[in-house]
Task: inverse folding
């Protein structure tokens, strides 16, 4: 399996501090990253500091489980 890099950029009409909290608090993040057909993700680890990482699992409606790892730079 090769490593893939995805860079996501999005503009929100909301206060910066609120958007930051929604993307760095696991209780909120699970509501932002659910693709269609998936159950809410399970966040195994999250350290949103520079150099930190996030690991999560997402389960598709057919039972397939997808693992995701993010790096915070």
Result:
């Amino acid at each position: 399996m090769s490593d893939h890099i995805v860079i996501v950029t999005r503009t929100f009409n909301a206060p910066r501090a609120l958007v930051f909290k929604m993307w760095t608090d696991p209780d909120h993040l699970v509501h932002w990253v659910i693709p269609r057909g998936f159950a809410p993700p399970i966040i195994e680890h999250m350290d949103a500091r520079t150099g930190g990482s996030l690991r999560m699992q997402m389960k598709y409606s057919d039972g397939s489980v997808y693992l995701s790892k993010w790096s915070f730079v």
